[in-house]
What does this fold into?
Amino acid sequence: MDSLEPFVDRLPIPFVLKSSTKRRLPGAPAQLVPYYRLAMKEIRAKVHRDVDPTRFWSFGSTFPGPTIEVQSGQAILVEWSNELPHKHFLPIDHRLHGAEAFLPEVRTVVHVHGARVPPASDGYPETWYTAGKFRTSVYPNNQDAAMLWYHDHTMGINRLNIFAGLFGAYVVRDRFEAELNLPAGEFEIPLILCDRAFDKSGQLNYPVSPREGNPWVPEFSGDAFLVNGKLLPFADVAAKKYRLRILNASNARFFNLSLENGPDFQQIGSDQGLLPKAVSMKTVRLAPGERADVIVDLAPCRGEHVVLRNDFLPLMQFRVSKTSAIERVIPQVLRPVGRMKELEAARTRVLSLDEVRNDFGEVETALLNKRHWHEPVTEQPVINTVEIWSFVNTTDDTHPIHLHLVRFQVLDRRAFDLYTYELTNKLEYTGPAVPPEPGEEGWKDTVRAFSQMVTRIIVRFEGYTGRYVWHCHILEHEDNDMMRPFDIVPNSGLRSR
Ligand code: C2O
Ligand code: CU
It folds into this structure.
């Protein structure tokens, strides 16, 4: 892939999915809501002019799938149908929990990452269904404007299904955001980033471990970077302000994005919507699952080529036109985000992030609080209460931790002494608490828990009672037990566990 000519393919923009009909909302039969249908299919797509079409599994007939766009407060129904083949084309590890050899190879279940939905529509990993089947989910969309994303969430093979291409963007809009007069239409561009590896014939190449019968690898990282499904695309743009909605849809890759010969980014939003105020930055960092909403002002770059890069590698090129136009003003004050107070928390949970190594020092599995997926539920927050979750990362990796259903705020990060912790289970801090980064000052749903640090988040468990999951968004970790169920329980007057 190194020898490919850069910037020969135009950046594709996933089309916005249309609903063809309205249907009654289950449980509220008087209400007719837009009904969407999206089928998961095997497709072939061109990732580059000089590469033969690549097999993907995608939603609809493009990779990535179409964008679903909704208005806050307007519920929709989506029928997710599995029209995939009966055999998987990527290496399933039957030793992983939930991917045993007696199960069908091709299984799917769709989760909308960041959506506030009832448990039955959340895409619980064990509620998968096979080729030829479908499921209809309801999305109430009672939440602030933000870019969410839909993706597969099947137990034990999620990393393979997403790697195969099963994801797309889900954009929530609202009146508040509309009144900010942000760049819209052709001036708002979603950038869905992921890394992949390809073989010589242009087909997806997912690595396997050298261990017989146990192909799982602890992390995938590839040498080819796709932006909206293309390698090194270009976009013809005006010398104006653009709003880029960036999503890191990689399995395990962290991005450090910057613009070569370009302006700084003005970050205006993160995972769960707008920041309280715009923040200027040279580099936008995104872990798998995270999103950034940024404004780039290309007016000073008239007639130039601006390259979006990850570290020093080019990802895509913006070709800025020679003419300029009257420009809009981006408000510096965006959506107020009231900081949650630690005093509000009914309890604090200290949860470790661990890796288990075998006798050869290889990572065998990754765990949350030393528990496997199938063990009884241990996190049972009471509905409408606030908790602090304190992630104690004992590993050498950063783990992006995602909680379903809820949005949260990052409190701080703090280094601790690993040796003391492992010996006595006590936290001895070795440095001051570090406040959240400027781009983390808003509502989040995925947080980078840094190596050998305690990362604290504060969460109000609101919306619905029932069973959800929390997990590491490095998909290889998630599939190998770095995922746990949690229950939001009704307020019964009894004390929570
Ligand atoms: Cu983006 Cu549980 O996932
Ligand atoms: Cu992880």
